[in-house]
Amino acid sequence: MKRIVVQPRIRACYGHPWIYRNEIVHADEAVEPGEIVDIFTSNGVFLGRGYYNPGSKISLRILTRRYENVGKDFLVNRFKKALSLRKPLLYDSNACRVVFSEADDFPGLIVDLFDRWIVVQINTLGVERLRSLVIDALLEVFEPQGIFEKSDASSRKKEGLDVEEGWIYGTGPELLLFELNGLKFYCDTRGQKTGFYLDQRWNAKVFGQFATGKVLDAFSYTGNFGIHALACGADHVTFLDYSERALEIAKENLKLNGLSLEKAEFIQSNAFDYLKSVQGSVYYDAISLDPPSLAKSSRSLDSALRGYKELNLRAMKLLRNDGKLLSSSCTRIVTRERFEDVLSSAAKDTKTDVIFIYHGGQPPDHPVKQLVPETFYLKSYLMIVHRE
Ligand SMILES: C[S@@+](CC[C@H](N)C(=O)[O-])C[C@H]1O[C@@H](n2cnc3c(N)ncnc32)[C@H](O)[C@@H]1O
Questions:
Q1: Atom 2 in ligand 1: which residue has the minimum CA distance?
Q2: Which end of the chain has fewer CB atoms surrounding its CB within 10 Å, N or C?
Q3: Domains observed in the chain
């Protein structure tokens, strides 16, 4: 096995799987990009076995801390272990994220299961080189009818890789039917990310249980939050998203669950503009706000915080007294504390007394690894917005 020598006392010595280019002391010239290597510190400590990409700022990612062969058996064991953690989620659902990259000790790989189908994202050159082993191991563990690759993540560009999208094993429909929390949904293979936001499985369920009356599902994508609300008895849901396709699929998702389209409206608009334009003329009993990530790096932190403030302030003003607001943030660099500050500040400016009744985050199929803080990103709060 070829070797790469890195500095001592770097984060990777204490459990983190990433090693940056500037932490590398010496790399054997014969190492090929994407190749598996043994990693040692310059004082001779074995750190683990991982893959190397000199073209990426994160040049090494550790796959194992042992001297073990990264072959099919290794992958099968990793996938089986990840699946066993998720088993309790499958009692009222047949979908879950089975591999969540670093959080499942498999940097660069995301695998979502939707009933008989699998959607994979290969985000690094190292995993790209393991592609056929990954497929073989997935076939052995899950015996799927089809594997769809949806490798369109921006991280692929940083790794020097092109977008890959299509069936790489077997086949299936464009819309993959699956069940979540006892409801039926389509995963859109032509949609966003892996086709469905499984990370909101519990927050959407909680919202559904508390949302009554007239509801706004802002940044609805294919209707996850609003459909949970309608299924639990809400009178009417406005689905708001700027993706026309997502709203079309939201309609199909309603039909799948026997929910009347008369209890729904679909507004294709910029949510910031919509929330501003209806101020004072429309009121809701419950609102879900689930915007996309508002900042990729700490350089845009302030503008992200301003964005959250604007959305939450406007949503609070649109709620009837004692209305419910479920506010989510998937921006990794926005911490829980900062997000709570934004919510408190919006409450103060709207002269409302906000009562937090649920603090949500990532469900068990999107685990957070304590030693890898980058695995934490999703914050969700359900509030009662009270005004005297
Ligand atoms: C995080 S996803 C929402 C996921 C959804 N709540 C769910 O649980 O499936 C963000 C959504 O916001 C939409 N979007 C992004 N920017 C928007 C904007 N300015 N106005 C309206 N929709 C927007 C995207 O099309 C995407 O569907």
A1: 292
A2: C
A3: 3-64 (2.30.130.10), 72-176 (3.30.750.80), 197-386 (3.40.50.150)
